[in-house]
């Protein structure tokens, strides 16, 4: 803006019709207007050149004023001589040549001269150019407009401009600006066409001559950064996307932008507080048009309109008001519309269903049908012997001509019955769904992608003389124990099939279970009313000695308190009385047992009052439970091996107990009755959850190693998978067995589970449980293992997985134990 101010001052000094723009007082000091011309507003963010700064020193003020006055005098004289030369040269030029020369001068004015060229000659030349430009504009406008335009180019402060505008002088009206944007005509002539249409083209539009405006080659970010670093005016450049070029903003444009950012009027010469001009004519009118006060509806929002808008918005959101689209004419239509067209709807909105039409008459109903349609005499006699309901309604007959055809006697009756059918019988359209049966079958992965799992027979263990009722493996997977109805318990070596130990217990073995603690090779065996705890003898000598010491009989411990049991989960009863202690002491008896027959090691037996069906160990190996289904309130007992204590956790059982299990990681206890599975919290001593199985009789149960899933087998051939975090009802019910299921088992490492039943087969399933709670378990049947025989209606009695390998052991009623490997 300092450059524009210099041009303005020089133009006012040189122009003959105008007085000099600067005046010097008698004492040599500059006038007030001269100081204002030199001032540049700091808040506009514009820099002052070295010759535009105002010296504010008190001592050198008069000297600087004299020197500046001399310089202005020289500039004035040089300006006048230059004016004469320029005026004499330009006066003879035509208007077209003068316009072309002015354009070239305006283009040269875009580049601001360097600080080294800010001497006197440059100021004179700029002043002359500004003078001629103002003179040409003054030809079409008044002198005030030119003056205002020049004043607008000066680099004065905003506040000083406002103070001058507030004085007595009227503010001139700005006719046009010297903005570089106004001087540069728009080259692109595509109008309001979106530039996105040209994004794939080589040009960006067309100029006035209809020629394509080729897009400029874009620079990458590195070149752009280097150009900005080298160019000190890069902060003034703005990219014009419409014309694909960069525009350099002038100081006046930057000043306008700064005023807008400060919330001021862009042009300082505009007075926002001009006096009000009353446009009304009061010469002939003595009263206003109306004395009525302003109604509220003109400045207060209408409450009723707001309510109406709310109703309309609600109706649109709920779909009550829909956009009415023009109805499209059907592409295909019936040439002759009849009853076949059922797309039309009645007044009440229901689709019209045409009545069923009678079968058109065929050859048999002709008056002269072919001979093959005429019944024989035997058939006529048979029709007469039939009942009215079975007899055909029409019997073909032959006539020589239509005149001989008699009238139909049942015509009126049949028409009346048809009218009753059409009037009284409701009609409904049956929608036929064309569903491909293959789409109903879930897409499951192929079994070969789910390996490993047991597929073939690897080894067979023979030696029992009766049905093998139960099998189990030790935690290491090296040994396997089996119990048979011949009264013996055998311990086998898995790798070789060698029988290491045989214990003849003299009674039918119903269940065997190995202690899950590897340091305690103890085997629990259920025989009649006894639960036998014996040393398996598979450990080292030190381990065997510690087990014998643990199985040594100690004094009888005092009775433990019991836990309430009801469907609502009552709290445990902590009141111990003498009667309750006496009753608890009579639950079971711990006794020492001598196995005999050359069998080494200690053994304990727990004597129950009712036959023991099964037993289950806690994962730590100290607690174990027994099930005696006939014991009613004493059917479930929990024993502690280290202290040789027994407690009855339930005073009352909700049904006949079939199986119990400990949770693999948490203090929960699973109790399976005939139709339900109840889960108890041992810490809180209350019912946590009740699973509804939907089966008739539960025969077996097992818990997933993660503890969140449970499978049960039933005697009605159902295998139910429960996702206990999802629901209390089965997540999946599988029906692959043809007879009762005897046992189910989970693998401890692989995503496998198996079931076996009286149909002589064992089914292996892939059961993947994901850690993501939003993803359901994947259950895929992968293999059916057969080979066992059926004896007296009993097939495979028990199955168990190897603890580390994907192998499955099966025990059947044919006295054999088989090992299936992958």
From TrEMBL:
InterPro entries (UniProt xref): BOP1/Erb1, BOP1_N_dom, WD40/YVTN_repeat-like_dom_sf, WD40_repeat_CS, WD40_repeat_dom_sf, WD40_rpt
Subcellular location: Nucleus, Nucleolus; Nucleus, Nucleoplasm
Keywords: Nucleus, Repeat, Ribosome biogenesis, rRNA processing, WD repeat
A molecular function GO annotation: ribonucleoprotein complex binding
Biased composition (Acidic residues): 39-63, 106-118
Any one biological process term the GO annotation gives: gamete generation
Region Disordered: start-end pairs: 1-193, 554-578
Gene3D superfamilies: YVTN repeat-like/Quinoprotein amine dehydrogenase
Pfam short name (any one): WD40
GO cellular component terms given for this protein: nucleoplasm; PeBoW complex; preribosome, large subunit precursor
Residues annotated as domain BOP1 N-terminal: 198-454
Stretches forming WD repeats: 461-502
Record flagged with keyword Manganese: no
Stretches with biased composition (Basic and acidic residues): 26-38, 86-105, 119-140, 148-157
Family: Belongs to the WD repeat BOP1/ERB1 family.
Task performed by this protein: Required for maturation of ribosomal RNAs and formation of the large ribosomal subunit.
Name assigned to this protein: Ribosome biogenesis protein BOP1 homolog
Organism whose genome encodes this protein: Chara braunii (Braun's stonewort)
